[in-house]
Design brief:
By secondary structure, this protein is α+β, with helices and mostly antiparallel strands. Among the domains are: 13-40 and 60-110, 2-Layer Sandwich (Double Stranded RNA Binding Domain), CATH 3.30.160; 235-450, no CATH class. It has helices at 13-29, 85-99, 133-148, 218-231, 249-262, 265-269, 330-336, 359-367, 415-420; strands spanning 34-50, 53-71, 74-80, 154-173, 178-194, 201-209, 241-247, 290-292, 315-319, 322-323, 350-352, 370-377, 387-398, 401-414, 422-425, 435-436, 440-448. The strands form three sheets. It has a six-stranded antiparallel beta sheet. A five-stranded mixed beta barrel has the order 7-12-13-14-17. A five-stranded mixed beta sheet has the order 10-9-8-11-16, covered by helices on one side. Helix 1 (13-29) packs across helix 2 and helix 3 runs parallel beside helix 4 (218-231). The N and C termini lie far apart (78 Å).
């Protein structure tokens, strides 16, 4: 008689919920006062080609179950990739064993039951792309070919790639909450080179979306990566100076990311942030706004609830330049004597409001004479002091017109001063990630060159 496998290749949402319920029942039976469990399964396909030949072809299939138990204020966690009943029981037993040997932590425990997402919205986050490996290779080749044919000076490639992933994450706890939702993400990208000898330049472009129908055409991505590469040929160095700096949207996103990291609850209670105890303070100029919008359909950062089952909701983090609150999980909130903001696992769709219309041309006009930053290198950021120093490349601009590419420079400042010195935010918003912002113009930065 045939026996059904204990680990079928792909499980339905109700199967994952059943695994969570078994794990929670086992935790209760072993005396846990509270417990939470998360089960996920992910599948994906990634291909890359270089100079017309397939370089990599990867099929991904991952799964995991994690259980956390609480015996009063003692906590223990364990995980497994085996979903069989015996493995689930053994994993719960291991978590319970660990909890009995850990120190008590007054802030440990589940998020409050009243905060659970009892009616989570459908955010349209799953659009599976049933693309075959052969078809994905064709798309990647078309992307790279368009780049190589764009200009005779494009003479090499680091490759084009296509990836598609879909996942299902289910979370449950002993408050009676069990919820999950599927997600997908798809990306097409290309990196090419131009020039000779020491003057080799490279650049890239990519398109990423929850819905594969909304990806840019592969050929358009290839041509844009080539256009950007050609624009960087024959770069010059700059003499050291102070000047205004304009960050393109995909680079400006990093500035907002540094702000988000500085106001995370963990950074606050560990006292490792340059924005320590800054709620109510003027961080950005008057009129500047950052909001969190977790429920944007199809957005990369959307989520109906956080990693603790807490319902997500719209909120304003920066109002008229003033910090209104932190990014908190239930644990970090308790450490700070505050209430969770539904951000266990991070923020969901941070949006910087534009205050300038007209896109990049208008922002270049606002820049006048200064540096357009299109690439940053290195990790020279001190989150405790806010000191900022990174390698950069881009273009020198005079009277709102790009004059020539620049390379081998370093830009430096202090993040708190940089935030306060923001002059304008463009409406050329990049929507490819969980932070949505246009280009950001800073009043002044130190540019270290020759």
């Amino acid at each position: 008689m045939a026996v059904a496998p204990s680990n079928p290749l792909r499980l339905a949402p109700e199967d994952l919920e059943s695994i969570i319920e078994r794990a929670l029942e086992e935790a209760r039976a072993r005396g846990a006062s509270q417990a939470e469990a998360a089960v996920s399964q992910d599948t994906g396909l990634s291909v890359s080609v270089r100079l017309g030949e397939v370089e990599t072809l990867e099929h991904q299939r991952d799964r995991s179950m994690g259980i956390t138990v609480y015996f009063g204020q003692r906590k223990g966690s364990a995980s497994t990739a085996d979903f069989s009943s015996d493995a689930v029981r053994a994993t719960v037993a291991k978590a319970c064993s660990i909890a009995r040997f850990t120190a008590e932590d007054a802030c440990a425990g589940l998020a409050d039951a009243a905060l659970m997402a009892r009616s989570p919205p459908d955010l349209d986050l799953a659009h599976p792309w049933n693309v075959t490996a052969d078809r994905a290779i064709e798309i990647a080749k078309a992307c790279e070919t368009a780049a190589l044919e764009f200009d005779s000076r494009i003479n090499n490639s680091e490759g084009a790639s296509v990836s598609t992933h879909q996942g299902l994450h289910v979370y449950g706890n002993t408050h009676g909450f069990v919820g999950g939702y599927p997600t997908t993400s798809h990306t097409v990208s290309c990196v090419v080179l131009a020039g000779k000898g020491e003057d080799m330049q490279r650049d890239y472009w990519y398109s990423s979306s929850r819905d594969w129908h909304e990806l840019e055409a592969a050929e358009a991505i290839g041509r844009e990566s080539a256009r950007r590469t050609i624009a960087r040929l024959d770069p010059r160095k700059l003499a050291t100076r102070r000047a205004p700096a304009l960050f393109v949207p995909e680079i400006a996103r990093g500035l907002v990311g540094h702000f988000a990291a500085a106001i995370r609850g963990s950074s606050q209670y560990r006292q490792s942030s340059f924005l320590l105890n800054s709620v109510g303070q003027q961080i950005f100029p008057c009129g500047f706004s950052i909001v969190e919008r977790p429920h944007i359909p199809k957005a990369m950062g959307s989520a109906p609830f956080d990693d603790e089952g807490v319902a997500t909701k719209d909120r304003e983090l920066i109002a008229d330049g003033v910090l209104t609150g932190y990014i908190l999980s239930s644990y970090s909130a308790r450490k700070l004597g505050l209430k969770t903001t539904g951000n266990a696992g991070g923020a969901h769709n941070l949006i910087v409001a534009a205050n300038t219309t007209g896109g990049m041309p208008e922002m270049l006009a606002r820049l006048g004479t200064g540096l357009l930053v299109t690439e940053l290198m290195g990790q020279g950021i001190n989150m405790v002091t806010g000191d900022y120093s990174r390698g950069a490349a881009g273009f020198w601009v005079e009277k709102g017109v790009i004059q020539y590419p620049v390379a081998e420079i370093t830009i430096a400042g202090n993040l708190r001063e940089m935030f306060a010195g923001i002059v304008a935010v463009g409406d050329d918003i990049d929507t490819r990630g969980g932070i949505r912002t246009g280009s950001i113009l800073l009043k002044e930065m130190t540019i270290a060159g020759e």
